[in-house]
Amino acid sequence: MNLLDLVIALPALGFVLALLMPRTQENAIKMLALGVSLATFVLSLGLVNGFQSGQTGQQFVTDNIWIASPEIHWHVGIDGLSLWLVILSTFLTPIAILLSWKAIHDRAKEFFAFVLLLEFGLVGVFAAWDLFLFYVFWEVVLVPMYFLIGIWGHDRRIYAAVKFFLYTMAGSVLMLAGIIFIYLRVGTFDYVQILAAISSGHAMLTHTEETLLFLAFFLAFAIKVPLFPLHTWLPDAHVEAPTAGSVMLASVMLKMGTYGLVRFCLPMFPTAARENASWIVALAIIGIVYGGLVALVQPNMKKLVAYSSVSHLGFVVLGIFSFTQIGLDGAVYQMLNHGISTGALFLLVGFLYERRHSLAIADFGGVATVAPWLSIMFLVTTLASIGLPTLNNFVGEFMVLQGSAQANFSWTVFASLGVIISACYMLWMYQRVFFGETNEEVKHHVPDLSLREWACVIPLVVMMVWMGMYSQSFLPVVSEANAKILDQSKMNVPLRVAAPRMTEHAPPDLSRPPVTAAAAGGRADAR
Amino acid sequence: MQNLWLIPALPFLGFLINGILGKKLPKMVINAVAVGSVVLSFLLVLNIWSSGGDLAANPIHQHYFTWIQSGEINIGWDYAVDKLTLIMLMVVTGIGSLIHVYATGYMAHEEGYYRFFAYLNLFMFFMLNLVLGGNYLLLFVGWEGVGLCSYLLIGFYFVKKSASTAGNKAFIVNRIGDFGFSLAMFLIVVNFGTLDFTKVFAAAPGKSTETLTAIALLLLLGATGKSAQIPLYVWLPDAMEGPTPVSALIHAATMVTAGVYMCTRSAVIFTHAPIAMDTVAIVGLATAVFAATIGLTQYDIKKVFAYSTVSQLGYMFLGVGVGAFSAGVWHLVTHAFFKALLFLGAGSVIHACHHEQDMRHMGGLRKYTPVTMAVLACASLAIAGVPGTSGFFSKDAILTAAYGHAPWMFWVGVVTAGMTAFYVWRAFWMTFWGEYRGHGHPHESPWSMLAPLVVLAFLSIAGGFLFNVPKILEGMFPAAEEVPGESMLMGISIAAGLAGIAISYYMYVVNPKLPQRISDGLGGIYRLVYDKYRIDELYDATVVNPVITGSRSLLWKVMDQGVIDGAVNGVGSEAQLAGGWLKMLQSGNIRSYATWVVLGAVCLLILIGVAEGVTR
Amino acid sequence: MAEAMQSINLQAGVPISWYLVLSAVLFSLGVAGFLFRKSIITVFMCIELMLNAVNLSFVAFANQHKQVSGHIFTFFVMVVAAAEAAVGLAIILTVFKNRETLNIDEINSLKN
Q1: Fewer beta carbons within 10 Å, N or C terminal of chain A?
Q2: Domain segments of chain C: what residues?
Q3: Nearest chain A Cα distance for residue B551, angstroms
């Protein structure tokens, strides 16, 4: 049981404890949830502290057999790619809990329990190194989010929740099929061993098989990202979700998709990934421009931010499929940036909603006069979101676009349009909400930030500046992990052709001994 | 060793203090922090100026930390000072200090006093970053940052819709320019592997002309945004919604010249891309003429000067485009003096007339505001290029170089110079001569406002001598070729300026009925120019509205909600329909299930029987 | 031991198909009863009948193949059937107490 296990287990423990507490002790439950999530965050900082850069491969590894047959391991560990995503999850959960303090009255016990369960799933997803375990966590995340939207959402919550659930399930079932196929072929669920088997050619994937597997995984992740045209669940889910749900959904859950693309699609199916890159990039760029244009005309703040997410996540996908170091680094960095800045946007929109009980832009106006600090914080977040240098998103966007320029300059030209559009929709919304004459409703119902709200906002704003000014605190470990992934995603067609072909009916056992040998080697230098 | 980081850090500190605590601080403290921080920066710059040693041989270069690092690409937070930067630093901090002092008087009775100075200090921080940055990305940091401050300050009176709209417009139009700039940066990294000025410029001569032309043209697109050139100049006239000190500092003296600075900084790239150079010159010249014609007809005193700024910036680009980089920078410096003065003087006039900006409601102010009149006269002489004033030297240098490049450019430039002299002096006569046509009693401004004006007036007249930019920058750029008949060219441009002044005197003092008759005579053409050629309306009709309606009706309603969601919900309802049929099977009655089981078993048995029969 | 086996074998004059036919007839009777009778008790007894029909074929096959697994299965089935009878009858009793009917078509409140 090492630190990482603890970080994963603590929210689960909190979940169980919260469920065991009596429903009437609302405050105690909230305190418990906050305490557990804060403790988890503090513990996860220990991961940063103990993380040793310069070592590619996982750290804080635990590898025990979970289910004996088929052999499924509790194999968790983190590398530079997952480290910051784990931190992002543990960082945002206390904020999500704190911001729901007053907003949730109905069934508070279940709400806070579900938020902890969500954290458990999210940390698990980013830490799992066993494909089956990954899948389990992937689905675990789905459950609390489904209920968060379905129970504590707004008017059309059931529609949104079901849509969200079905969309995601449709993709993840394909991924499950892919995982099982790989298991049948390689005989293990272990990521490291599978990777070794695939890269050494022992998995004997034909070209078609590789492409189909790639597509199965890709579809699951693309829905989660969401990549155009699979994005329509997102605006509905966001608009209907409670603030905490929106924050967690936008900040962390979407990153599961992009994380999956980097972690699984690139290294496991390098040839297919590269062959399919062109249309994926095309979709990403369409998403960037399309999401921005649709965001431009949204009358609802949350929908606007949701479509802006489609646009921003397009950058991430673009960076990933540029297959350049800086593009990939930028994509990962952009995942974190988007988590911080869009999380903050949803948070602040949530504050506005708590005050005015409306999300329609037209119901606001002149908020800057009555709530100056709220407006300033919103402005900083807006600027971060549209990529102002010295704030976080700029660094990520710059790197992504630089990476895509190295791959294909025309991609960059089109994707950069998104940067212009983002300024249009964000500033236009900002103008309509915060500037102008203060209307009566706003004047009486929109006070400035309370202490609790400050406590939610300040960490996020600090992170925006920090990540924008000193990316070196975060990027080096990411770069190392990405360098390895890029190396693994080199097209190794010749190697695969050279590998001995076996007949269709050969028992899979025959391929095992070399696999495990190679995997053992791979794991040895991973440690 | 100079600590360069202190120069931008001081205004930033001022921003933090005023921004966070300003609401509770007394005005004196706000003033001290805001003005003090900028003046201190100015003193630091002066220190470099006086003790810097030989900057041409040893430019100062300081590396603070690595900002972005990935793979081969490493971008540091580096500040560098060479002579060009030093000139820019002098202009920015020097004029910045004066305008800060002025603003303490001008803004004295405004709400959000602390906010104003916080923004102004933040602007200084970003502007200093822009000129100090040792690589393109850091320049871009300042570039975007000043855009942000411009946005905030234009929209300073955010309750007014026109102000916040103008702010948005400025930011978004600038974003279009930044689109070009960032693409240029990406191309530079792809081709050079770095963004450091020294490394890029060292390697630039070895690259292909096509690459350099592409980079230069994209940089130019960036510059047209920030420096308000055709086609992206539209934001600058609207930017006059901001308080007048802002117009003087940001939208006349410093920020809008960033494009010129950037092109000059990239001189090596531009000189190796002749097509781009020509484009720069033509864009500059076209903007100069175009904006000057609009300036002829405007009545809002700030709008007149705004179009004048656009036009003068065009001059600077003309200078850069014909290869006379140092002349362009020279004009940048002198323009900073006299245009800041024009705006501040206009502010003083507006202040005197109780916030009236329409010149038709002014007049006869020479009796009430003699100091303002005197300083504005200095500025107007300078911009008209009267011999001996600062504007004369720089403008003449540009026009001479233009003649050397292509004579027709010189002639267009001369005509523009004549128009410039005309409209500036038209404003002068309309404001100070004749009878007062406004309301209330005009009054002279306080000395906190007038003192900076006097300093600037001195600089407008003598700035050409004091800052002989081509001399300072000698050796940095390829020397301009000698042009034959230089004195005759000088004579022509002087004559054009004087003619402009004379005509305006005749039209607005001697024979005040004449302008009305001319404008009536011109009819539609006059209306078109008066309406600024209706370029804003053109952009609205061709770009803004199609994008918005297209996004709303086509992308959102049809594509997103119709096609994609339609498909998704369609699949859903199909599944429900199928489920509805299948539901019949699931009656919930165990015995009906059992019947199905039996039927199934019977079928199986029959099948087996048939199979047996077949195999047998 | 060998002689004992021999004696069992001698008794196996009855061909296996007879056992199977009997089992099938019993089973079909059970199915028919299960499907068409209204009373829960009868339905319940029919289920037992089916189980016993299966038991019969198990034992018959066990004898045929000289293996004990058939017997073991039979024991299992009998144990389960006994448990089922205990629980089932208890449920039937409760149902009758509450509803005062054993008509299977009227006891459908779990549906919908």
Answers
A1: N
A2: 38-99
A3: 6
Does this model's pTM top 0.90? My answer is: no
- The number of residues making up chain B comes to 616
H/E segment holding residue B75: strand B73-81
Determine C/A contact with 3+ CB pairs under 8 A as the test: no
Compute, in degrees rounded to 10, the torsion defined by CA atoms B486, B491, B496, B501. 140
SS3 assignment, position A188 = coil
CB contact under 8 A, A398 and B547: no
Least confident of A319-333, A376-390, B520-534: B520-534
Q: Any residues with CB less than 8 A from the CB of B606 and at least 6 apart, and which?
A: none
ipTM over 0.95: no
Q: Tell me whether residues B591 and C111 touch, CB distance under 8 A.
A: no
* Count helices and strands in chain B by DSSP H and E runs: 27, 2
User: Any chain B CB within 8 A of the CB of C20?
Assistant: no
Is the pLDDT assigned to residue C111 strictly greater than 70? no
Q: What is the mean pLDDT of residues C33-58?
A: 90
| pLDDT tier for residue C11 given thresholds of 50, 70 and 90 | low
The H-assigned helical ranges of B322-406 are 325-352, 370-384, 390-405
| Secondary element (H or E) of residue A439 | none
Cβ A409–B547 below 8 Å, yes or no? no
Query: CA C112 to CA C106: how far, in whole Å?
Result: 14
CA A5 to chain centre: 20
User: Per-residue b/e over A357-385, b at no fewer than 16 CB within 10 Å?
Assistant: eebebebbbbbbbbbbebbbbbbbbbbbb
Q: Nearest CA to CA, how far is A189 from chain B (Å)?
A: 32
* Helix residue ranges, H only, B478-534: 486-505, 514-522, 524-530
Look at the block and give the residue holding tokens 């300036």.
B295
In the numeric block, which tokens belong to residue A199?
Answer: 């890269």
Quote the tokens at residue B111: 């709400």
Which residue type, as a one-letter code, is found at position C42?
A: T
Is A130 in contact with A186 (CB distance < 8 Å)?
Answer: no
pLDDT at site C2: 52
Among C35, C110, C111, whose Cβ lies nearest the Cβ of B591?
A: C35
Amino acid (1-letter code) at residue A354: E
Residue whose entry in the numeric block shows the structure tokens 């062959």: A275
Alpha carbons within 13 A on the beta-carbon side of B72: 11
- Residues from chain B contacting residue A449 (CB–CB below 8 Å): none
- Residue A502's pLDDT is 44
Min Cα separation A325/chain B (Å): 6
> What pLDDT, on a 0 to 100 scale, did the predictor assign at position B558?
83
Torsion sign across C-alpha atoms A172, A177, A181, A187: positive
